Amino acid sequence: MLKTLFPNVNWFDLLIATGETFYMTILALIGTLIFGIILGLLLYLTAPGGIWQHKTLNFIVAAFVNIFRAIPFLILILLLIPFTNFLIGTIRGQNAALPALIIGSAPFYARLVEIGLREVDKGVVEAAKSMGAKTSTIIFKVLLKESTPALVSGLTVTAIALISYTAVAGVIGAGGLGDFAYFHGFVRQDFDVMFVCTVLIVIIVFIFQFIGDALTNKLDKR
Amino acid sequence: MISIQQLSKVFKTNTTTIQAVDDLNLRIDKGEIFGVIGYSGAGKSTFIRLINRLEEPTAGDVIIDGQEITALSKNQLRLSRQEIGMIFQHFNLLWSRTVRENIALPLEIAGVSKEERISRVDELIRLVGLAGREDAYPSQLSGGQKQRVGIARALANKPKVLLCDEATSALDPETTDSILSLLVDINEKLGLTIILITHEMHVIQKICHRVAVMEGGKIVEQGEVVDVFSHPDKAVTKKFVEQVMGKPDKDITEEAFVQSVESGKVLRLHFVGETANQAIISQVAKKFDVEINIIQGNVKQTQSGAYGSLFVHVTGEETELEQAINYITSTSVEVEVKTDA
């Protein structure tokens, strides 16, 4: 039946493409998590009244975040071609997509991290200070721990944006479902292929959303 | 034990300067419960934060147990803070941690080993009366229970001083009383010095030994709680005393009755820090052949005994009355004869 409904779909290739999408999304998500938290913490801590209050550093980080959030992703990939080539040694394939994916989504996630950190009760930070906590203790045991549900729900939102970025990256040859839909579906005018790819991407988005929501609910003890 | 000298804090913004704490001097003895009372904006919140340098003083010294807190480096200050417990109006618990984990946090910060942490936390949970709620999250606790966690957490590293920042202001009256008794209990059991700030005079009345009244960043009046209650000097102090004792002119409404007595005497018995003679009425009734009728009274219990006055109408033989009054005067209760019919 699948053969009659979707005559042009090569299921094995499709499976590989799905795997590639997962691969790019998950690796990029890990990179985004790390850089996003670092940038978000910097934004929060160097802000006026913050623990590391520092006007210049705050300005630089904020400028970096704002600029990279403003550049449309497709253009960002093209701009980063020389950088990617230097870093990965190629500009094709899933790994080549990672720098652009991470640089494109980490600033976005950083802002969500900053919002999450700001929602941590100032009084709790003060209480930790009154106990004689080091800044590192305040960061890891208070700020990040108390904002975990916000960090996870922010990461879920970011993951979904990332999935759509991987599809864009696919169009310039990064592999994955976007690549598959474009080259095997759109270019060959095989619309059944595009349809199947779309459904699969939507399902992947739902999976990430479901995991993210479940995790956020479990972590939130408020 | 705690000495505060010429302590000042100035907040500066681009346009304004606010002198939150103004050249404040204070000595607090070991083991006492010292209250600082003032209206919001009086600078009391800033003052208590200057003690453990959550706010950096603009000038002046804070010395705790011979250690000059204001001279410590950042690192020394961190260690020193582990010996200064603090509780807050809004409890400031970590909602992501259970009761047990919240109490363990200061121990983790102080680098206490895991086994020791567990036994210390259990001990503290029993001390503050939270047995059975160890694994609850703060969101599952009532306000009073949250403050108990706050107290246990503040006591975890066996501090020398406990700072209470409006610790009962977010609680209902009944819960406030239970938290206050817990503080007294801890003060007596552990000999802990407690400094508390509040805007509620009954908190001072119930648990403090000494009190300082703050206004405009300065201490305008201080002394033994009973003394401040009986002889409030400044207008602001009088207002605070009225919070608890009622307006003094309420006594005057009794004037009419006082005038209308046809026999015997109307006495005003004044209790100032009374502990020994609280049964004075029944003693007088037993010892002398007189009838005693209590007309009106307002007596409050403080940490150093009862404070307040009692209007009584005494009737009987003239000589018996004489003797009864002499007897009362011989105790530390002051007698004032209002009418002598």
UniProtKB/TrEMBL annotation, chain A:
The keyword Transit peptide does not apply. The keyword Transport applies. InterPro entries: AA_ABC_Transporter_Permease, MetI-like, MetI-like_sf. Keywords: Cell membrane, Membrane, Transmembrane, Transmembrane helix, Transport. It is found in: Cell membrane. It is a multi-pass membrane protein. SUPFAM superfamilies: MetI-like (SSF161098). Coiled coil: none annotated. It comes from the Bacteria. GO terms for biological process: D-methionine transmembrane transport. PROSITE patterns: ABC_TM1. Residues 18-212 form the ABC transmembrane type-1 domain. The chain crosses the membrane at residues 22-45, 57-84, 96-113, 150-173, 193-212. GO terms for cellular component: plasma membrane. Pfam families: BPD_transp_1 (PF00528). Belongs to the binding-protein-dependent transport system permease family. CysTW subfamily. This is Methionine import system permease protein MetP. It comes from Paraliobacillus quinghaiensis.
Automatic annotation (TrEMBL), chain B:
The keyword Ligase does not apply. GO terms for biological process: amino acid transport. The keyword Cell membrane applies. GO terms for molecular function: ATP binding; ATP hydrolysis activity. It comes from the Bacteria. Residues 5-241 form the ABC transporter domain. PROSITE patterns: ABC_TRANSPORTER_1, ABC_TRANSPORTER_2. Keywords: Amino-acid transport, ATP-binding, Cell membrane, Membrane, Nucleotide-binding, Translocase, Transport. This is Methionine import ATP-binding protein MetN 2. It comes from Paraliobacillus quinghaiensis. The lineage of its organism: Bacteria, Bacillati, Bacillota, Bacilli, Bacillales. The gene is metN2.
